[in-house]
Amino acid sequence: MLSGKGVRHNFRNSKNSVLNITKAEFVKGVVGEDEILEDGIPQVAFLGRSNVGKSSVINTLVKKKELARSSPTPGRTQQANFYLINNSFYLVDLPGYGFAKGSKDHRKILADIIEWYILHSGVEQKVIVLIIDAFVGVTPSDKEVMGYLEDAGKNFIVVANKIDKVKKSQLKQQLEDIVIQVHPHPVIPYSATDKIGVTELTNLVTKK
Predict the structure, then answer these.
(1) pLDDT digits (tens, 9 = 90+) for 149-195
(2) Which of 9, 110, 137, 181 could bridge to 95 as Cys pair (CB 3.0-4.6 Å)?
(3) How many angstroms separate the CA atoms of 147 and 142, rounded?
(4) Strand, coil or helix: what is 81?
(5) CA–CA gap between residue 142 and residue 131 (Å, rounded)
(6) For domain 24-206, which architecture applies?
(7) For the chain, which residues make up each domain, given as ranges?
(8) Nearest residue to 24 via CA among 77, 65, 53
C-alpha cells in the first residue's frame, strides 16, 4: 500500500497474514430502499469509472472468474449488486460512473443509484474501494467522486488498477503522481492480470 510519505515498489504478494476469501455468492441487486440495507451485515463498496476493470478486480479478489460479470461495453452494471463474502460482509458492486456513451437519461439513472447508495441509503460502509486506471491516471470524474466522498466523511482507499499496462520505466512516476493527487488516502497498486495487490486488498476488506 502506498501513501504520500513515500512510494514503496515491492509489488510481490506475501502469503503471510492473509485472511482468505473462501466463499462469495450473489445475493441480490438493488436500486433503492431494500431490507438488505438494514440487516446489520457490514458492507464494503466498490466504485470506479466505467471500463476501469472493476469486475476484474472483484473476481480476482474472490477467486471466481465470473462472479462479477465484466464486459467490453461500459455501463453494464446497472444496480448495486450485493455479494455475501465469507458469510460475514457484503461486497457491494456499484455502477460505473463517467459513462460517456448511452443516453443522457441512462447515465443519470446510474449516477443516481451511486449517489443514493453512497450518500442517502443510511449505510455507513466499512470502507469504500475507489478503483482508478493506473495507465490513465486520476481523471476529473475521479476527482469529483473523491470530493463528494470526502465531503460525506466516507472512509475510502484507492486501488490503482491496470499497472501491468504501464511501462516499467514509467510506473514509479505514474504511481507517485497518483499518490499525490489522492493524498491522504492510501493507494494499492493492482493488476488483475498479474495478480498484484490481491493480498493487500484482501487483508484490507476482510479485517474486522
Answers:
(1) 999 999 999 999 999 999 999 999 999 999 999 999 999 999 999 99
(2) 110
(3) 9
(4) strand
(5) 9
(6) 3-Layer(aba) Sandwich (3.40)
(7) 24-206
(8) 65
